[in-house]
Amino acid sequence: VLVEQLKDIVGPSGWTSDATDLEPHLTEWRDIWRGNTLLMVSPDSTEMVADVVRACAQSGTSIVPQGGNTGLCGGAIPDRTGKQVLLSLSRMNRVRAASAEDFSLVAEAGCTLASIQQAAADIDRFFPLSLAAEGSCQIGGNLSTNAGGINVLRYGTARAQALGLEVVLADGTVWDGLRTLRKDTAGYDLKQMFIGAEGTLGIITAASLRLYPAIRNPETVLVAVESPDAAVALLAILRAELSDQLQAFELMSARAVRYVLNHIPSTSFPLDQESPWFVLLETARQTTGDDFAALFMSLYESALISDAVVAKNRSEANDLWRLRHSISEAQKKEGASLKHDISVPVAEVGNFIRVAETAVTREVPGTRVVAFGHVGDGNIHFNLSQPEDWSAAEFAEQGQRLASLVYDVVDSLGGSISAEHGIGQAKREQLLRYRGETETGLMKAVKAALDPDNIMNPGKVI
Amino acid sequence: VLVEQLKDIVGPSGWTSDATDLEPHLTEWRDIWRGNTLLMVSPDSTEMVADVVRACAQSGTSIVPQGGNTGLCGGAIPDRTGKQVLLSLSRMNRVRAASAEDFSLVAEAGCTLASIQQAAADIDRFFPLSLAAEGSCQIGGNLSTNAGGINVLRYGTARAQALGLEVVLADGTVWDGLRTLRKDTAGYDLKQMFIGAEGTLGIITAASLRLYPAIRNPETVLVAVESPDAAVALLAILRAELSDQLQAFELMSARAVRYVLNHIPSTSFPLDQESPWFVLLETARQTTGDDFAALFMSLYESALISDAVVAKNRSEANDLWRLRHSISEAQKKEGASLKHDISVPVAEVGNFIRVAETAVTREVPGTRVVAFGHVGDGNIHFNLSQPEDWSAAEFAEQGQRLASLVYDVVDSLGGSISAEHGIGQAKREQLLRYRGETETGLMKAVKAALDPDNIMNPGKVI
Question: What predicted TM-score, i.e. pTM, was given to this entire model?
Fold first, then answer.
């Protein structure tokens, strides 16, 4: 009965139960999580989403919302029962409004991140959220996971970009919170609850977003440093010198660079590879001048950096960014990889890498640490490649033990076991372990208040 | 029994029931809200706050937390029954940690805003929250009301400065969320619920805060413009030219300026007063140069501004800021004043002022609109001075009617009835009216989940 009701609500082009059509929606690209579904519906309006949720609520059927399905933790994948409804937001892909003077834009949840960047550029504005999956990930998913990416240092995460939300609640009620206000102290700031909740409290159907002035004079610089601690010290100096004009600040280990050069076609590296660590940074200065070259020269003379190269044009800059974005892909060619997307206080990044590397290589000698990422945000992708003489399966079996070692170090430094990827199905137990009863108890209280029948993406987060 | 229990918990120097000591805590400086209390306690540690809350929870006694008591909406004033416990955070005034390299600081709730600014400056960092009451308001109150001020344009409100919180929950449990992470997607972002909740969900006892590079080259500019619309157009141009280096952008009507010059000693004005509107703006450029003068010259030539003066030194700049900060005080001398602290989308500021002024002067001819404020945030203090030939009491009687007119205009433009001051006791009915059942229903659900016995600052917000 529910299936027929849902088909009626979304119309003939709004659902599928065809196995081939469903396949890409029932697993993630890493193929770790896999599920089944009663029916996949793709409503194309907020009212339709509300009707779907109401029908599901009446029959006690749970709903898994899905955007671009680019997640890594199984957050948008239904369970294996085949009893959950999969709700794709892909057809809700309109930019409803855009205002250059108000520096704001209103977009539906199914807009890809790239399309929102473009809509901002079309009115000479800049939408700063940027990450590797931007061509296919959707803004609803970006907000539901509080996505990060390379420009968080200057602009903050997805949360900081949200001025307002439209949300379909667990009983099918629509909450229209699509204001574009910079300041609003009229009661609780409800949108904050839904951001980062991975669809467990309601379904984000649209968002009003903050825009910024168009970027001028982007300049990309690659520097060689002795250690992560040197990178953190460099960051503090550059923030003082450049302030907000420092947009991105990414750490790469020499091993990460080497894997890219070995495995990814047509990549090259403009610096001597002797240095153990490199930083790829991007600035956007309002005024250009010789002071920039002088700044890096003085850093070289103080021995904080041992080498540096400024991209001569956007093509060279793009090559450098391609190198950075290819690390995960290159690492795949080195066998099994265990990923830990963690954050610590910025000042503790060097400490974390040192202690965690010692811990994992003591536990499994030969483990190759590939550390890289958003050091400006204290967010390191601490990935582990298998020992060269192990099988992938053998190494995968060590996953839980090595993760515990890494997360224990993170926890001892006041960090987080998830900085970008979220909790999904993957880290629920660890969340309980590391965040404790008080914090997870509060989360459960919020969940019970907003979704008393537990039909919104159950089994995710908490 | 409870009173004795509380006295035991906080010790002899931690409570008072003396009428003279209590007086400044039982009313606000405008003397609109006034209450009584069973006992005022001033715990000096988080554990002591927790013990107080636990004792109150056991006896079903409600608690009103109070910081610097600089609010305007009665949010920190107990009711008149004399049955509520007043909990002052003033003795919790330690800066627990400060790190230049991590760009962060951990402070207890009772630290004054000025003391936090100073603690940041002591390590060559900048804490951007700045408002008129900064010498006496406390960070716990700033966070509980999501305070704004003059630097929101560049840095965001109090919410954007919070990296983590320590909160005593309604049952006396302490939630330690004092992380200093830039990115954390491990479950719901619980701190967001307590920020802006005016103490109705728990008591903020400490916060980890975001710091920024020290400000360089601050420059203050006063310009004359034809209209609020011209100010908004100027803002868009300056944001494009200066980006984040534009720190503050404040609109003042000619009437507001005139009242200051008439009533506040030793104030002067460096521009011709013919213009109907003025903008006071502040920049902090990383590099200084002639382009700045050229920019304002080109704005003058394009007729977007009709006059401009750049402060020659900090003393001249301070004089200009003193002018801006004296508007409320000056307005008092013109008789009764009705205040409306509203926000609209930035692009609608001109429209709002036009329509609202027409509405109120049609309703009460002779009403003198004094409009000024944070136009860069869409936040206008739309204050109304009484007609010159009315009595203050006569005008005060029109308060509700005029507020309804103003708020109806705000609402029609997608704005908020409270941009800075919060809801407190003052605007509860209007919150229900303008935010509707779905939104206030969500707020009530959150309140019931976190404070089921309704003992945390009851009667405030919702």
Answer: 0.97
